[in-house]
Amino acid sequence: MNRVSPKVLALLLALTLMWGTNWAMFRTALDELPVLTFRSGALLAGGAMLALIVRFRGESFAVPKGRWPALIAASAMNLGVWNVATSFAVLYLPSGHASVLAYTMPLWVAAMGFVFFGQKLTGRLLLAIVIGATAVVALMVPNFASYARAPLGLFWGLLAAICWAIGTFIVKRTDWGGMRLSLTFWQVAITLPPVVLGMVLIDGLPDHWPTTPTLLVMLYTGTLPMAFGTLVWFTLVRLLPTQVAALSSIAIPIVAIVSGVVFLHEPLSTLQAVAIASTVLSLWLALVPSRSV
Predict the structure, then answer these.
(1) What kind and span of H or E run contains 59?
(2) Would you say 49 and 238 are in contact if contact means Cβ atoms under 8 Å apart?
(3) pLDDT: is 10 or 124 the higher one?
């Protein structure tokens, strides 16, 4: 693998911060709003932001002929199932426990790539995945009791990870005919109507305006993690091999741990320290090319 550019490293850092800080925030909003109501508002905000970006950049909204089936499938996997499943997961589990399940995605990508697409792993990348798996397991071990008490939380968290892995392959293996920013816009736009319909049928129409903190979380979630974060993610999928792009996401749950230690003075457990060290080593192996002897 060629040396990763500073642009890619900057995108990885931005994505990790945006997605890593979002879990605890949207959990607080779900104390006031039902899942589909919150997600409808966030998707609407994200879609509006992406439409403005595409228009500002002067890019076309046109979808090339024959791409609609792949676009609808990618939307369902990357955003539809993801948004609903992660929201339900945090209703049953603490946000940190749920996020660890969702970010098992790189392991599913590696398994699917090997089984369905015959993708071979270099020794270095295989080692990176094994060490990354060690980080995920280290974070999951203290949560096993939570998963046992809330199997539905375990189900929703893993469903989000598996569908995200499938969606990543769809995006990576489809020739989008020059679509760039509009690819992200259309995935949000396609996801919005069924989520709104679900809100109306399951949650019912809102009977009050959200409080200011909840409204701010909804707008933040829609405009930054959803709009810009998803845009950055698909850029990374385009620039990096599938397994490397997927592996880069394991740093995201670490943000919550480090933030708690630095800003909230929370204790750092031995397993958390192992997870942090494993994540750093895994990303180094995946992103930094080996030197020729």
Answers:
(1) none
(2) no
(3) 10
Query: What is the pLDDT, as a whole number, of residue 140?
Result: 79
Question: Rounded to two decimals, what is the model's pTM?
Answer: 0.85
Residue 276 has what DSSP assignment? H
Show the 3-state SS of 172-193: HHCCCCCCCHHHHHHHHHHHHH
Question: What integer pLDDT is reported at residue 221 of this predicted model?
Answer: 92
Tokens coding 199: 């809100």
Rounded to an integer, what distance in angstroms lies between the CA atom of residue 107 and that of residue 225? 22
Q: Closest by alpha carbon to 246, among 139, 137, 131, 169?
A: 169
Separation between Cα atoms, residue 181 and residue 237, nearest integer Å = 13
Look at the block and give the residue holding tokens 């996401």: 249
For the chain, what is the radius of gyration of the CA atoms? 19
Contact 235, 11 (CB under 8 A): yes
With cut-offs at 50, 70 and 90, classify the pLDDT of residue 2.
Answer: low
Distance between CA atoms of residues 175 and 172, nearest Å: 8
Domain edges within the chain: 6-56+67-287
Residue 267 neighbours by CB under 8 Å, 6+ apart: 261
Candidates 26, 48, 34; CA nearest to 206 is: 34
- What's the CA gap between 74 and 82, in Å, rounded? 11
**145-175 per-residue burial string, b: 16 or more CB within 10 A, e: under 16:** ebbeebeebbbbbbbbbbbbbbbbbbbbebe
Segment 56-71 shows an average pLDDT of: 94
Interhelix angle 151-173/229-239, nearest 10 degrees: 50
Angle at 50 between CA 45 and CA 54, to 5 degrees: 155
